[in-house]
Automatic annotation (TrEMBL):
Belongs to the RLP family. This is Uncharacterized protein. GO terms for biological process: brassinosteroid mediated signaling pathway. The chain crosses the membrane at residues 506-528. It is a single-pass type I membrane protein. It comes from the Eukaryota. InterPro entries: Leu-rich_rpt, LRR_dom_sf, RLP23-like. Pfam families: LRR_1, LRR_6. One of its GO terms (cellular component) is membrane.
Length: 534
């Protein structure tokens, strides 16, 4: 298609040809003196374009340009930046094969939104000289930031540079960006400690994401009372010490992920004052002691009524699980109408679930608001599973594997009508498998292996679809899908299903109807859209 087709449409200002296979778009031999429409809005997304359109040389009034999801390769022409007008523009070049920006280190544009993510760009991260609100440089090969870059970021609300090759210490200049609300520097090679000014100064940051770097040291612990944090993700680093007690000043905190670090501390019952906290990820650290305090006064204060995601896996927690503690997880009992979902202010959160199935890691993801789970696997919890777990009707996933839990599997688990994954493997559970589990319509992933269970495996059209791997290591179990036959003469009870599915089936596409042989680990992944101030 040649752009000359539109020459006679002199009043054309908006052109959207997205989702077409446009082999030729630009008309490389365009006569610059010939009349042509002056576009304000041009969208050519998903068009299989391989080169930067040459006809844009004559377009100097475009304020919205979208060339995303194409095959554009090589360098962005220098004239492309010079052509943009001196008022806010949207420039979207994400998901191409660009290797060079063409300008370094500053771009002569005023861009409301500049999206260069998912390309192969290298060198300095290019900073617009004019005001910008949203800058996305993620998933490239950028290796450095220009000096004094903060002087050009006064209006920036979102700065994303995840999954690049940035290294060294996190620049203190980020502390000078007074209007920034979201800062994402995850999946880089930053080292050293977290700059204290990023957490201790009142600079308006709502979301700080530094996951999967090489950060060391301890958390800054002088967070001010007017803390504006709503989401903090420091997972996948080498941060040690204790959790900063001054986090209690962050009254709007909804997500805290410090998984895969070296934190050595007690379970943070003191966070009960954070009345909006919905996601607490402490997995793969060095936490120790009881989750439930021993004294009655402390028990009364260890409440998390808004918590929807609790991941304590792979720590050194010990002690018993108490009836009262489960009943205090109010948002897992009924859907909370008083606490807004985390998506309201921070954009779209996604939970990524990593399941090891037959030796392969399989990843699924879903939005936070459709997922409620508890993971206490790989600790030293002992005693029985409290029957009160049956009141947590909103649960989608439960992982209690690799502990020292004893006693029977509570039949009250059959009340968890929304549960889709249940892992109780590698414990010392005894008795029979409750018949009530066979009535769980959504249960698509089950692991009861390596316990001391006995008796006949319940039979139902749904339950019988699980693999024998779900029941291995229980010498007393018999019946399908195991090869061991039951010697009793009583006929098995077959459970029928009459319920109607009403919830969001988050695992319907993952080995539906199959058991699995190893446990699952869960991590939080956040992705952002442009925020709005409250």
């Amino acid at each position: 298609m040649e752009f000359t087709f539109f020459r006679k449409l002199t009043h054309l200002s908006i052109l959207d040809l997205s989702n077409n296979d446009l082999v030729v778009v630009d008309g490389a031999n365009d006569n610059p003196l010939a009349s042509s429409p002056k576009l304000n809005f041009l969208r050519l997304s998903h068009c299989n374009i391989s080169t930067y359109p040459n006809f844009l040389r004559n377009q100097d009034q475009i304020t919205w340009l979208d060339l995303s999801y194409n095959q554009i390769h090589g360098a962005i022409p220098k004239w492309a930046w010079d052509n943009f007008p001196n008022f806010p523009s949207v420039i979207n070049l994400t998901n191409n094969k660009l290797t060079s920006v063409g300008y370094a280190p500053f771009l002569p544009v005023h861009s409301w939104k500049l999206d260069l993510s998912y390309n192969m760009l290298e060198g300095f991260i290019p900073i617009p000289l004019g005001p910008a609100l949203l800058l996305d440089y993620s998933n490239n090969k950028f290796s450095s930031l220009p000096s004094n870059f903060s002087t050009h970021l006064h209006e920036v609300g979102v700065f994303k540079a995840s999954s690049n090759k940035l290294s060294g210490k996190i620049p203190l200049s980020f502390c000078d960006v007074i209007n920034i609300q979201m800062l994402d520097l995850s999946y880089n090679n930053f080292s050293g400690s977290i700059p204290s000014c990023l957490m201790e100064n009142v600079n308006g940051i709502e979301s700080l994401k530094l996951k999967e770097n090489k950060l060391t040291g301890q958390f800054p612990d002088n967070i001010k009372e007017r803390c504006s944090f709503e989401a903090l993700d420091f997972s996948g680093n080498w941060i040690g010490g204790q959790l900063p007690r001054s986090l209690v000043n962050c009254k709007n905190l909804e997500v805290l992920d410090i998984g895969n670090n070296q934190i050595s501390d007690y379970f943070p019952c003191w966070m009960n004052t954070l009345v909006r906290l919905q996601v607490l990820i402490l997995k793969s650290n060095k936490f120790f002691g009881q989750v439930v305090p021993s004294t009655s006064d402390e028990k009364d204060h260890c409440k998390f009524p808004t918590l929807r995601v609790l991941d304590l896996a792979s720590n050194n927690f010990s002690g018993t699980l108490t009836k009262a503690w489960f009943t205090k997880l109010k948002s897992m009992i009924v859907k909370s109408e008083n606490v807004p979902p985390v998506t309201e202010y921070l954009g779209i959160y996604k939970i990524t679930t990593l399941i090891t199935y037959k030796g392969f890691d399989v990843t699924i993801s879903n939005t936070l608001w459709s997922l409620v789970y508890i993971d206490i696997s790989s600790n030293a919890f002992c005693g029985s599973i409290p029957e009160s777990i049956g009141v947590l009707a909103m649960l989608n996933m439960v992982n209690m594997s690799r502990n020292s839990l004893t006693g029977p599997i509570p039949s009250q688990l059959g009340r968890l009508s929304q549960i889709e994954a249940l892992d109780l493997s590698f414990n010392e559970l005894s008795g029979t498998i409750p018949q009530e589990l066979a009535s769980l319509d959504f249960l698509s992933t089950l692991n009861l292996s390596y316990n001391k269970l006995e008796g006949r495996i319940p039979e139902s059209p749904h339950f019988m679809t699980f693999s024998h791997r779900s029941f291995l290591g229980n010498n007393g179990l018999c019946g399908p899908p195991l090869s061991k036959e039951c010697i009793d003469t009583a006929s098995p009870t077959v459970v029928s299903h009459h319920s109607v599915k009403k919830s969001v089936d988050i695992m319907s596409f993952l080995f539906t109807g199959s058991g699995f042989g190893a446990g699952f680990a869960i991590a939080v992944v956040m992705s952002w859209r442009m925020p709005t101030r409250k």
